[in-house]
Amino acid sequence: MKKFILVVIVMSSLSITAQTKTELQKHFEKYYQQMKKQGDVQGVINAMTHLDVLKPSQARKDTLAYIYVSEGRNMEALNTIGIEKSATDSDLNTEIKAIALNALGERQRALEFYNLLYKKQPSATLAYELADLMLQTGDLVGAQEKVEYGLANVTDEMRRTYYEQQQPYQTSLKAGLLYLKAIVTYSEDKDANQEIAIATLNRALAIDPNFNMARISKEALLSRAKGTD
């Protein structure tokens, strides 16, 4: 009889726990929707974290990490999904790792993940990111190849955001690729290619006269040209 009573108590406890967990999950699902409606990013993060604890899933972790990286909280994004490569990683998972590692200055590791995305589905946007990273890591041949692919496949509607100013701004991706082309060309031979690089920057500025990075680079090259005369 005592054993029967104990079994009943245990089963009742499990039932209550299951009901409580289900209720909590429903609560945080409603909380998530409300925070999303209000545009409360931290509230969304809190709700997603609770939901992942209650019912873990890789898709939920990826979404949470994406929110973190969108807010510039790159270390938290990587702590959520890790930094290891896996054959089962979603494209979103791979993109988050690439963006976060790049933002944290881990250029070579970021390149690995951008390359994975590019191999799956090359695009002008990914070509820009790869060219930029290759340029920073000294791979001028690889950077030039990606720039040429980007220019061959970019459309006038494509845009890219730049963050070197206090206020982020967008410009034409084609102008951005021409800017990278100028920097790669100049880096290959600073003396011989200086005028070609300036001409390429002029092409970028013809597309977007307010493109700050291109304008600053052009001014620097013109200043250098005057200094070498």
Please give a structural write-up.
With 229 residues, the protein is mainly α. It has a domain at 122-229: Alpha Horseshoe (Serine Threonine Protein Phosphatase 5, Tetratricopeptide repeat), CATH 1.25.40.10. It contains 11 helices and 2 strands, in the order H-H-H-H-H-H-H-H-E-E-H-H-H. The chain has a two-stranded antiparallel ribbon with strand order 1-2. A hairpin with a 6-residue loop joins strand 1 and strand 2 (169-172). The longest helix is centred in the N-terminal third of the chain and has 37 residues, at 2-38. The chain is elongated. The termini are far apart. Residues 2-16 have low confidence and may be disordered.
The CATH topology assignment of one domain is Serine Threonine Protein Phosphatase 5, Tetratricopeptide repeat
Q: What distance separates the N and C termini?
A: 103 Å
In angstroms, what is the radius of gyration? 25 Å
Amount of beta strand: under 5%
Give the averaged pLDDT, no decimals.
89
* Total helical elements: 11
CATH superfamily of one domain: Tetratricopeptide repeat domain
List unreliable stretches of 5+ residues: 2-16
Order of helices and strands: HHHHHHHHEEHHH
Describe the largest sheet. Answer: 2 strands, antiparallel
Structural class estimated from helices and strands = mainly alpha
- Number of DSSP strand runs: 2
| CATH architecture call of one domain | Alpha Horseshoe
Could you estimate the helical fraction of the residues in percent?
over 70%
Highest CATH level, the class of one domain = Mainly Alpha
The general outline is elongated
Strand numbers in spatial order across the main sheet:
1-2
